């Protein structure tokens, strides 16, 4: 990897030196601190951890119209950037006056060569070069601790350097990228450089109906872990036949980054209610972990009569996971909120905790009129207030994974989420990605990154393989990869017209006559009733409402109420996407 177009114009490359995807987590140094963190929200309270350092702020910035004009050696510590301009991070660079935002629906931007994907026009691919410095605490360098560089979202592909050393490359604008930078950091001042390409081969899979913008638009931060670290965990809950008593199942991925085996590492699990009262006996197991190896112990714990999580009563518990050394000293504490809820299908009806799951939903782009893709937490709260005022109970994340904070708000306020992978090739959907093997890994890895990140959120009730991207064997592989991680949720994909893999019969913009035909299990064209009669039915997009639109809405609602096999639907869309612009007045 040399920082050339080899990676950003190669559909087979999803990333280089990226860490494996994992759930949203942050290490803490005590149980109390981890509980305060889960009380305040996963992302919002990261600052409470001594193992967290934000890199948000003002960075030095250079922008050029094409890769050939970029400052090739800017990542070297001796390169002078004193005369460069500055830019806030996070922010799409178009919002700071560099280039222009482009709005298209299915039409690809001119830089993408539709007759020769994954090629990008070398004369029209702006590159942003970012630099800043940081100082880390001295204790981050002790006892084999590991330091990771985390990007929540960068459009559309980027390289990162620490102190002149290339640490990695990533694409997929909507899921995180982590890099282990332990070998490259030092005491005192460190320098980070990031080179972002507006367009990449990944842009062919990001042809959503929205504003096309670029740059580091979500948070950037460092986090530090002990040599033995809880890298990931997965919580599932089930109920007994009466939906009274429950069982919690927890898998914990514990990684030993050191070159020596570690013995008698104590792993403990504690569960607390919303009042921070512990509701279980502390679960514990001792681990022996070989050098550079990962173990995945699992726990199963009965819980008497827990409160349910659903849209009407979104009660949240806390799980705290503790690692201790053989002397009983805390190495690390991680935690998250979770809800007791069970999803299942009976007689074609999608149930949550034994009751029909009925979606009164909207399709929502993640959008701020002043910051475009870089949506602040306060703006998310405004959106949530409107959603609750309108009695909406479902949001489809159109058409990509949203900011992690959005899922926390949905957990808290009782909003069901259809979590959609960042895969849309609207303008080329009949040929890309289809069954083309050069796109298989990238499609699968985009799906896996989303599922791993969001798997612990009770609000997520459906996974979606993407939107308006055609169909082919690549979607079959995405489905298989999803089920290999999580069997508790159904998988949605409207583009699977023949119901080859999808768990839900999904349709968009169908007239109510067709919706009723589906509910009566009729053959419709080449779609045979045998393929979907035992599966829930939904309108993933309907009642198009951009601008002064919509109409004849009542008939859909009457059909939703008449046929419980219909989950409901999502109106297109939540709010219009208008960028605020000052004119001469």
In short:
This protein has 585 residues and is α+β, with helices and mostly antiparallel strands. 14% of the residues lie in helices and 33% in strands. The N and C termini lie far apart (50 Å).
Radius of gyration: 24 Å
Please tell me the total number of domains.
3
Number of DSSP strands?
A: 34
Helix content: 10-25%
Kindly report the average pLDDT value.
96
Q: What is the helix tally?
A: 8
First-last Cα distance:
50 Å
Computed structural class: alpha+beta
Strand content: 25-35%
Largest sheet: 8 strands, parallel
CATH fold annotation of the largest domain: Jelly Rolls
CATH class of the largest domain: Mainly Beta
Explain this structure to me?
This protein has eight helices and 34 strands. The chain has 585 residues and is an alpha+beta fold. Helix 5 runs parallel beside helix 6. The radius of gyration is 24 Å and the shape is globular.
Key descriptive features of the protein:
14% helix, 34 strands, 585 residues, Jelly Rolls, seven-stranded antiparallel beta sheet, 8 helices, TIM Barrel, eight-stranded parallel beta sheet, single chain, 3 domains, Immunoglobulin-like, globular, alpha+beta
What is the topology?
Elements: H1 5-8, E1 15-16, H2 31-40, E2 52-54, E3 57-64, E4 85-89, E5 102-104, E6 127-135, E7 146-151, E8 154-155, E9 157-162, E10 165-171, E11 177-180, E12 189-197, E13 210-212, E14 215-216, E15 220-225, E16 228-239, E17 246-256, E18 262-272, E19 283-289, E20 294-295, E21 298-303, E22 317-324, E23 330-338, E24 343-346, E25 349-352, E26 355-356, E27 359-364, H3 377-389, E28 394-397, H4 404-413, E29 416-420, H5 440-454, E30 460-464, H6 473-485, E31 490-492, E32 505-508, H7 512-519, E33 537-542, H8 553-562, E34 566-572
Parallel strand pairs: 27-28, 27-34, 28-29, 29-30, 30-31, 32-33, 33-34
Antiparallel strand pairs: 1-10, 2-15, 3-4, 3-6, 5-13, 6-12, 7-11, 7-15, 8-14, 9-10, 9-12, 16-17, 17-20, 17-21, 18-19, 18-22, 22-23, 24-25, 25-26
Helix pairs in contact: 3-4, 5-6
């Amino acid at each position: 990897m040399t920082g050339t177009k080899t990676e950003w114009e190669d559909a087979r490359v999803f990333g280089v030196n990226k860490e494996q995807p994992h759930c949203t987590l942050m290490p803490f140094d005590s149980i109390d601190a981890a509980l305060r963190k889960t009380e305040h929200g996963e992302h919002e309270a990261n600052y409470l951890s001594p193992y967290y350092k934000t890199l948000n702020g003002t960075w030095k910035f250079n922008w050029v119209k094409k890769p050939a004009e970029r400052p090739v050696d800017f990542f070297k510590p001796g390169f002078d950037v004193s005369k460069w301009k500055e830019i806030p991070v996070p922010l799409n660079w178009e919002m700071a006056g560099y280039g222009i935002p482009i709005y298209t629906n299915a039409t690809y931007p001119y830089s993408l060569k539709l007759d020769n994907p994954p090629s990008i026009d070398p004369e029209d691919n702006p590159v942003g070069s970012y630099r800043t410095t940081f100082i880390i605490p001295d204790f981050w360098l002790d006892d084999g601790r590991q330091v990771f560089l985390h990007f929540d979202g960068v459009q559309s592909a980027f390289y990162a350097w620490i102190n002149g050393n290339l640490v990695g490359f990533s694409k997929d604008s909507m899921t995180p990228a982590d890099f282990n930078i332990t070998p490259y950091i030092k005491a005192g001042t460190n320098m980070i450089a990031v080179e972002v390409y507006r367009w990449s081969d990944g842009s062919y899979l990001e042809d959503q109906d929205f504003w096309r913008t670029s740059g580091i638009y979500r948070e950037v931060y460092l986090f530090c872990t002990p040599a033995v670290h809880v890298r990931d965990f997965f919580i599932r809950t089930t109920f007994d036949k009466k939906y009274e008593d429950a069982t919690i199942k927890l898998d914990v991925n514990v990684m030993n980054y050191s070159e020596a085996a570690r013995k008698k590492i104590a792993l403990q699990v504690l569960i607390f209610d919303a009042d921070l009262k512990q509701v279980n006996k502390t679960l514990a197991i001792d681990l022996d972990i070989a050098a550079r190896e990962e173990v995945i112990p699992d726990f199963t714990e009965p819980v008497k009569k827990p409160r349910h999580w659903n849209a009407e009563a979104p009660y949240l518990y806390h799980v705290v996971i503790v690692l201790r050394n053989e002397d009983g000293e805390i190495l690390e504490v991680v935690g998250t909120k979770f809800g007791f809820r069970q999803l299942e299908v009976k007689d074609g009806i999608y149930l949550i905790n034994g009751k029909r799951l009925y979606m009164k939903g909207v399709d929502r782009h993640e959008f701020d009129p002043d910051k475009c893709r870089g949506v602040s937490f306060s703006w998310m709260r405004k959106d949530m207030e409107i959603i609750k005022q309108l009695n909406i109970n479902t949001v489809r994340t159109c058409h990509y994974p949203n900011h992690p904070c959005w899922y926390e708000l949905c957990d808290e306020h009782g909003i069901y989420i259809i979590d959609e992978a960042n895969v849309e090739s609207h303008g080329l959907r009949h040929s890309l990605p289809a069954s083309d093997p050069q796109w298989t890994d990238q499609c699968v890895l985009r799906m896996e990154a989303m599922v791993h990140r969001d798997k612990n959120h009770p609000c997520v009730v459906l996974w979606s393989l993407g939107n308006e991207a055609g169909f082919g064997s690549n979607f079959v592989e995405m489905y298989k990869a999803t089920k290999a991680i999580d069997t508790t949720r159904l998988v949605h994909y409207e583009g699977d017209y023949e119901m080859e893999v999808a768990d839900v019969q999904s349709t968009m913009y169908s007239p109510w006559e067709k919706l009723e035909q589906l509910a009566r299990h009729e053959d419709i064209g080449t779609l045979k009733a045998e393929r979907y009669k035992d599966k829930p039915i939904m309108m993933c997009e309907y009642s198009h409402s951009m601008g002064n639109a919509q109409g004849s809405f009542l008939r859909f609602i009457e059909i939703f109420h008449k046929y419980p096999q219909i989950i409901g639907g999502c109106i297109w869309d939540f709010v219009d996407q208008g960028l605020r612009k000052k004119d001469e007045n």
